[in-house]
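Hey L., structure's done. Input below.
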Amino acid sequence: MRIDPTTGEVLDDEGHGDEVLDDGDVQITLPVRRGPTGSWAALAAASDDAPLTGPDKVTVVKVPRSLVALAEATVDRGPLIGYLESLLPAQADRPTGGKTRTLSVRTLLVALLLLALAEQAMIIRDAVALLNGLHPSDKHRLGVPEAVTERMFSRLFNQLAHAVDPSPDSPHNVAALRDAHDAIRAEHPGEDNRDLRRQLHAELEAAHAEVLLERLARLRYVLDRGLDSTLPDTPHTGSYAVDASAVPSWAHQFHRQPKRPALVSDPDARWNGKGEGWYGYWLHGVVRVPEVGGDDVPCLVERIELTAANADSRVAALEQLTRMVADHERADEAAGRPHRPRGDLLADRFYTSEVDRGDDWIWPVFALGFDSVHHLTEQQLGNNKAPLANGAIVVDGQPFSPRLPAHLRNLEPPKVGASKAAILAYQARIAQRAPYALHAIGGRRDDGGWDFGCKAMHALGALRCDLKPTSMAKPPTPRRPTTDPTVFTPGGRPPKICGQQKSRVGMAELPFWQPLLHGSVEWWDSINRRNRIEGIFGNVKNDASQNLTRGRFRVMGLARTSLMTLFIVMAANLRLMQTFTARQAKTAAAGTTPARRPRRPRMHTLLRHELRARIAAQKALAAAGDDRAAAGAAARTAGPPGP
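Output:
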């Protein structure tokens, strides 16, 4: 099949490199890309007996034309093509001459995204085969050269990676800096120019650092605009979850930090000993979550960033959130609408692991306009020893009346995997705390402080306390308990929280405050939304879809790894958005919201219940045997009945 180079018309049915189906879909034969498994000796032994060709060596991939259209529309949606083209050397009127580049940035982006959408390994050679095997009309529309070579594709990809490479240890940047230093030494030799050389070397280092910062900004811009092209136009409701996941490097998995990173195959990767450990990167993500009790929203990744595996996740997450908020405000101002709301931000214990500090996560999150919803560590739970300046006590990071009963001050939360009954019992005890919790009045101030009032204050009347005599006029109810004077009796003047209707609490006094009581039913409903980001990472790493695992792409360095990861996450966003849209359409066609199917217990839970039932049955049989034995012994002791 040939295509007219001007009109794109199909001229005849001559043979094509790969099979073109009648509907325009293409079947392409690609090598099987399996990750390294087992020991080297086992792999070598298996390789000796393996045939060089056969069905286990290749796989046939069917690429629907709908995927080509989806990849093309996604890439064309944002400003990414023009931006990346501006970072490359100009092709017209070049003083050095040379061959003009025939492969466009748009074609390269479509090929990489299409490879991720087809759920194939992100290998340069496979992307080249995919471009060469496309339908002729698609190749004409995309501007694919007559024959794409691996050299052509990899050179363009490397040029883009160099333009956005912020690593001071990458071979390209190290060589450029070394050559610049050598040029200074050659231009100003001799002892008389030592001070001049020292000054020029220092200026060169400062200029090089500025160039790397500019490239880091470029890389982040590419990541942000790439993900923006996969998001719907409707602004999100405002709540997000943050987390990080491991991305092992394709390089050798070092167990020690390299002393000279520039000499290592992947100079930007680092070792992390968490779990079984890995050598590579952290993938940090900001994911959309729905509001509590609100409409369902598609679970999409809005921001990503890669850092070395030993980097602080809090720093990376705050950087992502800052960029996201700035982008939202810029888009809202351009559209002439008010700034979109910022709701809850959900994070696990790692982000709030400091025992008595909030300035590294919770306070910066508040400064960005979010309310942190977080777990507390074991050291942060329970009753603080010292009360606040206004006389209130702090329990589980929240301020309470000093009349809070002693048996409600230190409650141990249920362990991971606890039964539903244990969780409900814990939530019931937390609910007993609610009348004693201080109430925030008027919202949080710009300096981070609050005005709090006791629930016995006149405006609330949810607690009866003799320290506020007006509250005693209201009748007691189960929801309006009466405080016990023996719990706390002021020796002289009552504290401010008891003697005033409201009192102010500074930000530093409550570093782990959150809008909901830790452990309450409402808090559980809110924090459980964080499971969405776990589901995102599970989708991205699922071997049945995008499969972001070691060996899925075989490039190294922060810039190249980030670019490959970007296309994988973009493909996951598009797939999840299609699934969500199809589910919404099915619900709308049915006319009613389908009833939620009860969750099937996990296999481990079923086995545990089965084992417990078997143990209980054996206990019952043993107890019945003991009873019969005891009855027989008693009958023998009593002897035969008398005449």
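The two ends are 114 Å apart (CA to CA). The longest helix spans residues 603-638.

-- N.
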